[in-house]
Amino acid sequence: MRGWFDAFRNDGGPTLYSYSNRTPVTGDVPTISLYVLFFTLFIAFVIIFPGVRKERFTTFTVTTLSLFVGSAILVSKYGSAWHVADTSIMSYYRAFSREKLAADIGVHIGLMHFNVTLQDIYLSGTVLSSLNLNDSLVNTGLLEDIDYNERFHWESATEIQEEFREALIKGLPYPILTVVEYFSMDEEGFCWGRSYRQAGYYASILLWASFASWCLMNLLLVVVPRYGAYQMIVTGALMITTNVLYYLLIPSTRLMIRFEDNFLMFKFGWCYWLCFSAGILCVAFGAVISIVDLMYPHKFSTILEVDYGTPFDRHIIIEESHYTKRNKRGSGKRSLEDPEPMGLGRKILRTLSMRGDKSDDLRLPHGVLNSGFEMDPPKSPWRYPHHMMNRPDGTPLRPALHNAFAKNPALVDRFIIIFFHDIIIRDVQRMRNNIWN
């Protein structure tokens, strides 16, 4: 009778692992994790999207573009396909041996590491006749177990040399050691590793800056969509700058690694083109949204906005404003007194010219004194002697006295003093008479 824990056990002993269960690498764990993360977010958005009733096109476009750009930035950062090369080779498997290896070799360079893959022709499906192999030199029993995928890092200046020594001790196949030796040497003209490490270092910095700009872009799209469009252009520009800088910093002399009759010729991989295409899309969509906002202010909107559909929504506030209500009360037909409608070019120029040149204001900070300009006195009823000189309808009560004051303003002060002096004397005499009586 077998028990619950009798699987893989012989005669009641412990589990026996009688064979090696080594398997080749089938995928990059960080990259697959990023795929799963962003794909899960996109699926969650697609599930709730049928419930969206307004702004469907803009909401779907902005959300999809944002998730695509974010995944492109992180996948490009951790990916291993910025500069790639692959070919079919016939080379010695190890030193001091006549056994030749017929396999496919590939080199995938990332920003902070590179991968070297080596797979025998039986697993890769390469036709033997295309390699012109001598069957007497090929050990078919050896080839069936060859499926390597080794990763080497250069985050520090000497890390690649240390990993190269570990590969020698480990006993990796001769073709892999040949590739690693090209990148580990830093002498004379063999400075490939240093150039690729420098290009990856600065490209990594720009990608992290792009990721920070992407986070700010999402925040602004929720708060102020117009500024989110501007930040989208900045994010795309940073990603394109990453591609340009990487292109300028990689070795100007093309790296070619020779294996007898075949060469490893490097070219830009899918990570490079993914980052470039995402940057182009960011700049294009950001420019389109900005132009639409210049032509039709406050028209671009998504349901992702903070106050969307609430009394504090910017669209509701604009529609309920006095200016909008006054325009809605009209007949809707343009009269002869209304200005001609402006086209796209005039709208953009008018919007951009609202912030005019301030050089004139800087040259005359205190303004210009205009001696010919005379400001009218305020028509307040509390100003002396205005309420005594004018009737309620505004006409002068005493035209002669009014003209005299206009010709000589100093008479106003003298008149006020005399007027108040007479009032005070009159009040004092009245009080004295009341006391004596």
TrEMBL record:
Topology in membrane:
Multi-pass membrane protein
Subcellular location per the Swiss-Prot or TrEMBL entry = Membrane
Output the superkingdom of the source species: Eukaryota
Reply yes or no: does the keyword Transferase apply: no
Assigned keywords, A-Z? Glycoprotein, Membrane, Transmembrane, Transmembrane helix
User: Where is it chiefly localized?
Assistant: membrane
A single GO cellular-component term from the record reads: endoplasmic reticulum membrane
Q: Name one GO biological process term.
A: protein transport
* Pfam entry (one): DuoxA
The keyword Glycoprotein is annotated on this UniProt entry: yes
User: Which spans are transmembrane here?
Assistant: 32-52, 201-223, 229-249, 270-292
Alphabetized InterPro entries for the sequence: Dual_oxidase_maturation_fac (IPR018469)
Family affiliation = Belongs to the DUOXA family.
Q: What is this protein called?
A: Dual oxidase maturation factor 1
Species, as recorded: Folsomia candida
